[in-house]
Design goal:
mainly beta, 19 strands, 0% helix, disordered N terminus
């Protein structure tokens, strides 16, 4: 049985620092992914007990990442970089194949709190985007990847709260639909908002 461990993160100097992520593949090999002090996304593999391979670099200037299996049961990484790009890499034939799946025209945006949910042939990517000039506001973004084309949704604009580790949580209902709980701020009060994804659009957020 193989399963990914959820990556965790801490807030330090308003920047999200990715902690190591341990991931078990279908052959029971252990993969370790992490972002080092130089903001390089690195990985290493343990094929035999207590013996790691040489560390290898995937990319530079990485802000956040998440690791899982795709629809074909291949390991993938979705990650954001400092140049306002969201990238996707898949492991095939013992190497990484990557591409940029979304870019902000303005390089002053940072993408953090990445989450990926795969339902059928659709890949739903969620993240928080924050303008580094206006650090008090951020946007909750939903990107849906489809073979027929990608869709981009701004679910809501919310305050950026330095004291919280995560601004939102994705939920999958029994019928396979998506819903979101996220933190908002109204009249000096922190509130939880709820929204559902139906017929390819998000409902108006409610308390």
């Amino acid at each position: 049985h193989s399963f990914p461990t959820r990556r965790s993160s801490d807030l330090m100097s308003n920047m999200e620092i990715c902690s190591p992520c341990l991931f078990y593949d279908n052959d029971e090999h252990i993969w370790m992914f992490y972002v080092n002090d130089s903001k390089e996304l690195m990985y290493s593999i343990m094929y035999d007990e207590n013996k790691w391979t040489k560390e290898n670099k995937i990319d530079n200037e990485v802000l956040d990442f998440t690791v899982s299996f795709d629809m074909d049961n291949k390991i993938y990484i979705a990650y954001s970089v400092k140049t306002s790009n969201l990238k996707y890499c898949v492991w095939e034939k013992n190497k990484w194949f990557g591409k940029t799946i979304y870019s902000f025209e303005n390089e002053e945006y940072e993408m953090t709190e990445l989450n990926v949910v795969t339902i059928g042939k659709l890949m739903h990517i969620f993240f928080i985007s924050k303008n580094i000039i206006n650090e008090f506001q951020c946007s909750l973004i939903h990107l849906c990847l489809d073979n027929d084309g990608n869709s981009f949704n701004t679910i809501d604009t919310i305050p950026f709260l330095k004291e919280v580790l995560c601004h939102y949580q994705v939920q999958i209902s029994q019928n396979g639909s998506l819903s979101l709980l996220f933190i908002n701020h109204k009249k000096n009060e922190a509130v939880l908002n709820f929204t559902e994804y139906k017929n390819n659009k998000w409902s108006i957020p409610k308390r």
